Amino acid sequence: MNPEAESDLAERSQRIKHEAQGLGFELVGISPVRVPPHEESFAQWLRKEFHGKLGYMERTEILRRDPRRLVPWAVSVISVGMNYYTASPRLTPPARGSGWISRYAWGDDYHEVIRGRLEKLLSIIGQISGGPVEGKAFVDSGPILERDFAGVAGIGWIGKNTQLISPKKGSWFFLGELFTNLTLNYDRAIRDRCGQCDLCLKACPTGAFVGPYVLDARRCISYLTIELKGFIPRHLRPLIGNHVFGCDICQEVCPYNVKAGSTHDSSYAPRKGLYAPELIPLLSINQEEFRRRFRGSPILRAKRGGFLRNVAVALGNNGGPEAVPALIMALDDEEPLVRGHVAWALGRIGSSDGIAALRHRLGSEDDAEVSREIEEALAEAEVKCP
Prior knowledge:
The chain is of the alpha+beta class. It folds into 2 domains: 3-88 and 103-180, no CATH class; 279-386, Leucine-rich Repeat Variant (Alpha Horseshoe). Helix content is 40%, strand content 10%. It contains 15 helices and 10 strands. The strands form 4 sheets. Strands 1-2-7-4 form a 4-stranded antiparallel β-sheet, sandwiched between helices. It has a two-stranded parallel ribbon with strand order 3-10. The chain has a two-stranded antiparallel ribbon with strand order 5-6. Helix 1 (3-22) runs antiparallel to helix 5, helix 13 (336-349) packs parallel to helix 15 and helix 14 packs antiparallel against helix 15 (368-384). The radius of gyration is 23 Å and the shape is elongated. The model has no long low-confidence stretch (mean pLDDT 95).
């Protein structure tokens, strides 16, 4: 390539980055479309079943390991990071009866926000290039190993907590990718800077890290409270604490997040009631109320049954006698998933009213799994309140 062409390429690439930053993407990097550096590690992770019940991971394995099968026309990928951090401290210990929702879910659904801006960036790139440009945007839900591409593009490195970490910005970022058929200037990857630090590994309440850089999703609080659609394993419920949607702990303890700056994007401003929400009122919301309250929020992903399941577990861990009346009412919930975890919470709290309600429900319960939950809850409660 002659010097003039190289100069034009560099100028176009720099302008694209500038436009991306103008759209709210604080981190921008460009890399070639190629096999991700950790595709073999991803395959081993699947073989060990660390993905749990995330069946779509297996179904899209080939595409994730080689995106050229997904976008064969693509030459370059523009990786972006958008800050969502809001500096509201976690209450330690948490106020009794309150829950914790991961910071990323306090505002609007990031999928729509980022996808819309990446599509706008694609339009701008067409204007810069003076002609039509083929492109496709991906935000989390696509079959892309996005942290691999962001790492190759120099946005950050994949830390021991499996999050992408920027040396200057930390890890409170949503990632997105824009694949294009343009040849661009490529950035260089940066080295891993975790060093000897293992704070994130030690801080995980459920011991979800098999080792540095390896997460067993089956034990991860985010997986258990969002992705898992069935009953949460009983031995993990006490470890979930007051988390009702996601978990931030491994990011909160990361030294690179100590000076994290708050987002300036209003899309991620906390909605009313999502910071340390009171749990008892949530137990009584119906399907319509759930959809209305969380419209446009990532929390919809858990669905009503999954969310109330999490609320019940949090009350079992962080509630008290004041939660018993609401839990007793929820024993008649239409969803077995909710009834089963409500029974567990009543067993954890232990009270004469709770025991009476569990016995009464057991006489009419027609779901075998919920009946087992009630029986085990009664055994635990009766020890505490003989």
